[in-house]
Amino acid sequence: EFMIIPAGFNDFPSALRAGVEIYQTLKNVIVKKYGRSSINVGDEGGFAPPLSLSEQALELLSTAIEETGYSYSEVFLGIDAASSSFYDSSSGKYKIDGKNLSEGELLEYYIELVSKFKLKSIEDPFEENDFDSFAEITKKIGSRVQIVGDDIFVTNKERLIKGIKNGAANALLFKLNQCGSLSESLDTFKTAVENNYKVIVSHRSGETEDTYISDVAVALNAGQIKTGAPCRGERTAKYNRLLRINDKLGPLAKYSGREVFSF
Asked: Which residue numbers are catalytic?
């Protein structure tokens, strides 16, 4: 997944508006380059044009941000590498962009992407059991980039504690229905916060129009939510709920913005 992070705004409505505008511009950019058949959307509302390299997706996003009139101080880029999906356990290599990369080579590739595209967040940069490589990338760039653990932690307290002890990642992807019960999930959330891990409240790939996670993100003061593109009812429902919460809170509403990237 390649995503934008509109963290450079003072309030949530402005950030959401930027996200919607950039999404519409991105659609036009893709149509112009790859044709109308390339803007079909996936489960989470994202486009899937026929790209051969990861950098091409980041270049498309960069173009859309610029053409919409926003700057890189307002809208940042992030990726969910989902590295377990292209890890070959038989060879111990990562098959990406037509190459077979070792852990060290993949780490250097991420560092290049951070330098070139000013990435602010990388989720699951290595396969889900490689705590050592997670620790290494956190050591290398974790002072300026959010290293998010999803598959490695699966909202599980024991796995999170192992990651904390190893210095693996600096952020937790928090999925309410992933570890069995709400109380267990909240216990994992508490463990993350107490150890200075950022927390991103997340949707699931298979979603409904229930908006509970929007309320949870605000109630926990998580500061971040990941709930897909501004497309498809089960995704936009969460954003609309956040808008209503923002209106209800009025002057008490706070948008974390750039603060989430203070490590």
From this structure: 44, 175
CA distances (Å), origin 223, targets 135, 226, 253: 24, 11, 12
Here the tokens at position 92 are: 């111990």
| Among candidate residues 141, 168, 157, 165, the one with its CA nearest the CA of residue 261 | 141
9 to 18, 203, 254, 259: CA distances (angstroms): 9, 23, 11, 11
Q: Which pLDDT does position 87 carry in this prediction?
A: 98
Mean pLDDT value across residues 76-94: 97
- Indicate the SS3 state at residue 227: coil
Query: Phi then psi for 68, rounded to 5 degrees?
Result: -80, -15
| pLDDT band, very low/low/confident/very high, at 206 (cuts 50, 70, 90) | confident
Contact yes or no for 142/196 (Cβ under 8 A):
no
Q: Where are the beta strands (DSSP E) in the chain?
A: 2-5, 76-80, 87-88, 93-96, 99-101, 119-123, 146-149, 171-174, 198-202, 225-226
pTM over 0.90: yes
